[in-house]
Amino acid sequence: MILSSSKLSTHFALFNPVSRRANLLRSCFGQRRPSLAPSFALAACLTLAAPIRAQQRAATPGVSVDVSPQPANSLEDGRGTWDLGAFLGGGTGAGKSSNTQFLFAGGRAGRVLTPDVGRTFLRGNFEYAVEVMPVYTVFTPTGAVYGASIKPIILRWNFTSNRRVIPYFHFAGGVLFTTSDVPPPNTSSVNFTPQLGGGIHWFVRPERSIDFGVDLVHHSNASLGDHNPGYNASIFFSVGYSWYKRRR
Fold first, then answer.
1. Cβ pair 189, 180 in contact under 8 A
2. Domains present along the chain, CATH in parentheses
3. 3-class secondary structure for 61-130?
4. How far apart (Å, rounded) are the C-alpha atoms in residues 146 and 181?
5. Is 161 helix (H, G, I), strand (E, B) or coil?
6. What are the C-alpha distances in Å from 207 to residues 72, 76, 151, 190, 199?
7. Over the stretch 51-99, which tens digit does the pLDDT of each residue have?
8. Three-class DSSP category at 151
9. DSSP string over 180-246
């Protein structure tokens, strides 16, 4: 049998120690390490696909996704909301008491008691509040009289149909204590202050508002003194800032 030279070289290479050593080295070190590129590519695809799947779920009928926006103010549907505020104001008497002026400052605490009622522009809710004014100065023609006041009853309706500007209207009743008779002289240092008024809450944030108000105030000592001339009508203006805490 005649073997070709190529077959002979292949045959003897199997018994060649050098060839066997080279083959062993190639088998141990010549294999290519597995590439990490496919793993990185798979992770990137999953990352990019996640937002797409979320959008598809949002667009799929019957799938509930909570995308409700934060309310523009805390008074809208605000049953149980606490209303805390500070204010500063002044006013003047009207008619025969136009020569008398007022300066006051204090704080307020209130709570919304009802859900929103109605569907028209009158839509709103009912709030009960209390105000304390440690500063209440009456500038009479004979000089300044210093005092403090508390309003334990404030019945307020908040008109919530607008989202940024919330008008309100209220009735209130309070008591004024002064260091001397108001109006002077020979009257009383205790006066009652029934009033009605309104204003707006301008919401700069959902839980913060700048407040502007105007009130028509009556001062009367209810015949506690020798005379009861009172101040039949005084116009008060105020500006304040309020913080709100919604019920969880």
1. yes
2. 82-245 (2.40.160.20)
3. CCCCCCCCCCCCCCCCCCCCCEEEEEEEEEEEECHHHCCCEEEEEEEEEEEECCCCECCCCCCEEEEEEE
4. 10
5. coil
6. 9, 11, 24, 37, 18
7. 545 455 554 555 454 445 566 789 998 899 999 999 999 999 999 999 9
8. strand
9. S-SSSSSS-SEEE--EEEEEEEEEEETTEEEEEEEEEEEEB-TT-SS----EEEEEEEEEEEEEEE-
How far apart (Å, rounded) are the C-alpha atoms in residues 171 and 160?
18
> Which two structure tokens, joined as six digits, stand for 65?
């996704």
What's the residue count for the chain? 248
Number of Cβ within 10 Å of residue 21's Cβ equals 10
Report how far residue 107's alpha carbon sits from residue 113's, in angstroms, rounded to the nearest whole number: 20
pTM above 0.85, yes or no: no
Please give the backbone phi and psi of residue 64, each rounded to the nearest 5 degrees, phi first: -85, 125
Tokens representing 124? 């709103």
Spell out, as residue ranges, where the chain has pLDDT lower than 50: 1-15, 17-18, 24-25, 28-33, 45, 48-49, 52, 54, 59, 63, 65-67
Q: Which residue has the tokens 């005649």?
A: 2
CB atoms within 10 A of CB 174: 21
Rounded-to-integer distance, Cα 92 and Cα 94, Å:
7
